[in-house]
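Worked example

This section walks through a single chain of length 199. The input is the sequence exactly as stored; nothing has been trimmed or padded.
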Amino acid sequence: MVKCCRCEEFIENEKMNGFWGQEEDTKPICNKCLKKIHDLDGKDIEIRNRIEKWLSEENISFNEVNEPKNVFHFLLQDIGPLKMRIEVFQDKNNLDVITGFMTFLSKELTFNLYRFSEEQKEEFKKKVDDFLSTLRVDYRTGIRVGYEIISERGHYGAKYFIRTKQEDLDKEKFLKILNMTKETGLKSDEFLSQTLTNQ
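Given that input, the structure is written out below as tokens.
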């Protein structure tokens, strides 16, 4: 007999329900544990189902994006005063849950940036980097914050994201992360506007 990969109890042949896990590392699982994973009221349900349930309970509209490299990928629409698009996803190669957004400069601010000398552009990037670094969260909370300065098709902006271990994520922490993300979006928008307008 083999052991279930979750409860570690021996599985009798008639109680085995197949295998669980990523394709290259599947393990046997019993009927009882598989039911828990797919049961929306169960304690050990799959993280994707939990997040989908929490979003529905809070009446947050979202779409599911088909992204092959992710386990799941939700796009939350019109969040906060800025009508932000917040993304929540889980990479197949890293099972942390990532919540984040990208913000780009307006055409007017992009035009201001193009008028900068190379020295002014470097100074601006440093200011953005310093500002974003102040938004980090104490690692002891289990919430890790990251950021990147980005440039796509001539548009400048920033990418902000929060990583959380899936086993540490409950509804209260998830909603807290969404609020942190919204607040960061507002602060970032205000900071970018003030910094470029005052240059």
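What to look for: The two ends are 71 Å apart (CA to CA).
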